[in-house]
Amino acid sequence: MRALLADIGGTNARFALLAEDRIGPPVTLPVAGFPTPEAAMAAALERLAPGQRMDAAVLAVAGPVSAGTARLTNAPWRFAEAAIAARFGLRHARLVNDFQALAHALPHLAADDLLPIGGGAADPAAPMLVLGPGTGLGCAALVPHPAGPLVVPTEGGHIGLAPTDATEDAVVAGLRARCGRAGAEEALSGRGIGHLHAVVAALRGAAVPERDAAAVVAAAGECPVAAEALRHFLMLLAGYAGDVALAWGARGGVFLAGGILPRLAGTLDRAAFRRRFEDKAPMAGWMQGVRLSIVTHPAPAFPGLAALARAG
Q1: CA–CA separation, 120 vs 254, rounded Å?
Q2: Angle 37-48/81-88 helices, nearest 10 degrees?
Q3: Would you say 66 and 52 are in contact if contact means Cβ atoms under 8 Å apart?
Q4: Among 105, 131, 134, 285, who pairs with 259 as Cys (CB 3.0-4.6 Å)?
Q5: Dihedral of alpha carbons 309, 109, 104, 100, sign
C-alpha cells in the first residue's frame, strides 16, 4: 500500500509518503500559498512521488470533521473525502481531526520522543490525553478498550479560561474585552500570545510595539511586557492541562504537543509549570500521580496517520 499522509494546520501543511510500511521524509507547504487542499496535495505528490499513484490518503486537519467533510478553523480550506479520492484516483481518502491523529500516535512514541515534566506514572488502563497550542488549541483523548483504543477528538480548545488570582482575573477580563470571549484558544495559541502581550501592555500602560507570537518569545529576555505575557501563557496552559486531565481522568498521561511548546521546552521552568498543573485542590494528590510530558518528536502526527492508513 502507498498512502499520502498529511498534517494540515492553519499555517502549514505537512505531507509524507507511507510506502513499504515506512514513513518517508515530510514536505512542508504554506496553506496560504494554495487555493485548495487538492492543489497543495498535487504539489506535494510532485515532490514526494512524481508520476506515481497512491492507494489512499489520510489527512489530519485542524478543525472539526463531520460525515466525510471538514474545514480548517483558522484558514479557508474545505475538504471532502469523496472529492479527494476522485481527484487522485484513490481507493479511499480519510479525514481526521489533527489531534485525533496525535492521539493515535501516542502508543507509538518512544521515550526519546518525550520530555517529562515532573513525576507521575502512566496507568495503561486509563485514558491518555494530548493537547497543545499552535495556530489554534487542540485536544483529544485515547481511551483503552479490549477491542483496541478508542480515540475521541474534541473541541476542548474552546472551553473557558480559569484564572486563579486577581492578576489573572484582570488578564482574562482584558481578553474578553479584546476578543469578545475569553475562551482558552484566545490565550493558548499563536494568536493568543499576541493577545496576551496586548492585554499586558494595556494593563501596565506600557508603550510597546504590537508583537506576534514569535516576536513576543524573541523579546521576552529583555522586555518586561513580553516576559509577563509569555509567563501568563505558560501558567494558563499548565492550569488548562490540569483541568482537562481531571475532566478525562487522564491517568494514562497528559501529552503536550502543538507547534509552540516544544520550542519553549529548553527554557521552560518545569517545576513551576508542574506546580500549576497539580494545583487542583482538593484533587492535588490525585494530580501528583498524573504523568505529564512534552512531545518532542519533530512530526508526531505521522505515526498516528500511518496507523490509521494501515488499519484502512
Answers
A1: 10
A2: 40
A3: no
A4: 134
A5: negative
